[in-house]
Amino acid sequence: MAQTDPAATVGKHPCPECGADLQWNAARQTLACPYCGTVVPYAPGQALPGASVVEQDLQQALSHPSSGRGWGGAAALEKREVQCQSCHAISVFVDGKVARRCDFCGSPSIIDHPSLNDAITPQSLLPFKVSEAQMRTRLRQWYGSRWFAPGKLKSAALTDTLSGVYLPYWTFDAQASARWHAEAGHYYYESESYQDAKGQRQTRQVRQVRWVPAAGSLDHFFDDQLVPGTAGVHPALLRQIEPFPTQTDLQPYSPEFVRGWTVERYQIDLGKAEKLNQDAMQQQMQVLCGRQVPGDTFRNLQVDARYQGRTFKHILVPVWLVSYTYGARSFQVVGNGYTGAMAGEQPYSWVKIGFAVLAVLLLILLLVSLNQ
Ligand SMILES: [Zn+2]
Ligand SMILES: [Zn+2]
Fold first, then answer.
1. Nearest ligand for residue 17 CA
2. 40 CA distance to ligand 1 middle (Å)
3. Each residue's pLDDT tens digit in the chain (372 positions)?
4. How many Å apart are CA 310 and CA 135, to the nearest integer?
């Protein structure tokens, strides 16, 4: 299994003009210097020097819990972790600003989280493709399409803080081979006589099932099965803005991409994620084997599946996030920083809903009176 030292993939790429650290610029899709504005040409899809996307051996990582951790070591880069006291999300900041409020829920009560260098280094990421200005436009359209949201919300769409956050994901690969056996059901029809309501003898066709034992085997390769590791973004919202094109567009991790952005530290760890992935694969194998059973239907399907060559990657995906509180509740609106897909939660204005109901009732009254 190909193993590289993550520290080797963490190179520094200073600004050629002033020597400051370069940052990823979503609007220009390239690396740029935040101080002197120098732009460094960067071809998308082309790895930065000395970096490549690597799959890690799962067994190796689980049995050697300290390998590939610490983000390449404290010497390679300065990072700071803070935890939100309200939603418990942990944010990582690389070489730069630390937010004063939680990006995930807006709470100001954030405290330092001991950075124990125990976090697995991200192997690759999708850099932001949708810029803040583009996301602001989408956000305005999205709020505009919410009929029953309180009016206050629409004006907030222009001023709300939009945070660019890299969310942690796990991806898993495995080669599965399964043996299955089941009872295959074949339909046939028998004539049956019965008495109808008038007491007359009638015949009808009744469906029967003939059960025959069946068995087979199946090989399947699982490629980049995603398991989110986030605690900060509500899972239902995340599902709505997936997919992230991880199979084709991942870039090898480099601190230039995350400097100046917030990175969420995963809270679903590798062990937990691996079990979720195992369950998901088993369910999928059950479905795939079920499709192989001959006949019209089946029952008692038993699948004995083995998973070999399991590898994983810890990756980061880009998300734009707005969080606001309305009344006592907190709401999130999220945008996929790569595809632009949006999803959000919103409070409802009962005054507006009340007026809409009233308007419908008046219309019905009007139509009724016109018909008379
Ligand atoms: Zn510079
Ligand atoms: Zn929070």
1. 1
2. 10
3. 344 333 333 446 788 888 888 888 888 888 888 888 888 877 555 555 445 677 888 888 888 766 667 665 444 457 788 899 888 899 888 776 777 888 888 888 888 887 766 678 888 999 999 999 999 998 888 877 776 666 666 666 566 778 899 999 999 999 999 999 999 999 999 999 999 889 899 999 999 999 999 999 999 999 989 999 998 898 889 999 999 998 888 888 888 888 888 999 998 999 999 999 999 999 999 999 999 999 999 999 999 999 999 999 999 999 999 887 777 777 888 999 999 999 988 776 777 778 788 888 888 888 888 887
4. 37
For residue 215, count other CB atoms closer than 10 A to its CB: 12
**For residues 106-121, b (16+ Cβ closer than 10 Å) or e, as one string?**
bbeebeeeebeeebbb
In this structure, are residues 162 and 138 in contact, taking their beta carbons and an 8 Å threshold? no
CA distance 297 to 186: 7
- Do 38 and 15 meet the contact criterion of CB atoms below 8 Å apart? yes
Ligand nearest the Cα of residue 103 is 2
Helix, strand, coil percent content, the chain, rounded in steps of 5: 25, 35, 35
Q: Is residue 202 part of a domain?
A: no
CA of 319 to the centre of ligand 2 (A): 16
Which ligand is closest to the CA of 233, given by its number?
Answer: 2
Q: To which H or E segment does residue 304 belong?
A: strand 297-326
CA-wise closest residue to 289 among 307, 308, 306, 303: 303
- Any domain includes 190: no
User: Measured between alpha carbons, how far is residue 237 from residues 13, 137, 227, 234 in Å?
Assistant: 35, 20, 14, 6
Whether residue 278 lies inside any domain: the answer is yes
- Ligand 1 centre and the CA of 41: distance in Å? 14
Find the ligand nearest to 262 CA. Answer: 2
Starting from the CA of residue 40, give the closest ligand.
1
- Report the number of distinct structural domains present in the chain: 1
Q: Tell me the residue range of the domain where 43 lies.
A: 6-180+214-356
Q: Is residue 366 part of a domain?
A: no
DSSP state of 14: B
CA dist 317 and 337 (Å) reads 8
